[in-house]
Amino acid sequence: MISWPISEPVLVDKALMLRPWHLDDVPEVFKICQDPAIQEFTTIPVPYTREIAELWIRTSPQKYAEREKISLAGVRNGEVVLSISLHSIHEFDHVGEIGYWVSSSARGEGLASHAVEMLTDFAFAIGFRRITAITLPENMASQKTLLKAGFELETVLRDGMTRRDGTQTNSVLFAKFPDVKILD
Ligand SMILES: CC(C)(COP(=O)(O)OP(=O)(O)OC[C@H]1O[C@@H](n2cnc3c(N)ncnc32)[C@H](O)[C@@H]1OP(=O)(O)O)[C@@H](O)C(=O)NCCC(=O)NCCS
Questions:
Q1: CA of 142 to the centre of ligand 1 (A)
Q2: Which of 7, 22, 36, 91 is the most buried (most CB within 10 A)?
Q3: Ligand 1: distance of its center to the CA of 71 in Å?
Q4: CB-based contacts of 160: which residues, under 8 Å, 6+ apart?
Q5: CATH class belonging to 11-132
Q6: Atom of ligand 1 nearest to the CA of 136
């Protein structure tokens, strides 16, 4: 069983805060999501408008309450630098899928792998037993992020994704599991 907290979580350590989205974040999210890499490698709507950013932020609490999704902003020094979410949740099976982006100006500092570890630790603590992530085959930055955050490469899904141009392509499936405690 998943012990779903009533309120959306706030996860904090020295490097980063993961917190629920605020409407004040709309301009920053709109700006960050114009980045071609985010548009190429994630499933955000394209073109990405301010209205889409606002709708996404407005609907996040409801989706959390309905146990559909955990969607958090990553904040460093008071600035939104990343987005991370746990979606495609199947509560009966204790599984969910993680997705993320980092602002182009904050990349290469270990923020993505750190945020992934923070959210997966939280998910395992509330009862998830398997967290997956799916990347395009050429998304080396994301694949390295996942390996660094303790994910294992499971398989290549033949024709598992459709690109923005409509062509079908393989995708790569990763998974992470809670630590197994061995009792003497
Ligand atoms: C993927 C992404 C989130 C990585 O963010 P990041 O904060 O730069 O990642 P990290 O700094 O945690 O780096 C993790 C690892 O990936 C490596 N890496 C980062 N960018 C890379 C690149 N372009 N090519 C190869 N490796 C890369 C880092 O060197 C690091 O490995 P290391 O510790 O062995 O050096 C970011 O590039 C991004 O937002 N991309 C667009 C959106 C996206 O692809 N989302 C994921 C969809 S599946």
A1: 5
A2: 91
A3: 20
A4: 134, 169, 170, 171, 173
A5: alpha beta
A6: 48
Tens digit of pLDDT for each residue in 50-79?
999 999 999 999 999 999 999 999 999 999
Average pLDDT over the chain reads: 97
19-46 per-position pLDDT tens digit: 999 999 999 999 999 999 999 999 999 9
**pTM (2 decimals)?**
0.96
User: Two tokens at 135?
Assistant: 């990347």
The one-letter amino acid at 38 = I
Pocket-testing residue among 144, 157, 161, ligand 1, by greatest number of atoms within 8 A of Cβ: 144
Q: Give the residues surrounding ligand 1 with Cβ less than 6 Å away.
A: 37-38, 41-42, 100-102, 107-113, 135, 139-142, 144-145, 148
The protein residue whose alpha carbon is closest to atom 12 in ligand 1 is 110
Report domain extents, the chain.
11-132
Asked whether 169 and 161 are in contact (CB, 8 A), the reply is: yes
- The residue with tokens 């398989």 is 155
Pairing mode, if any, of strands 95-102 and 130-135? Answer: parallel
C-alpha 176 – ligand 1 centre gap (Å): 18
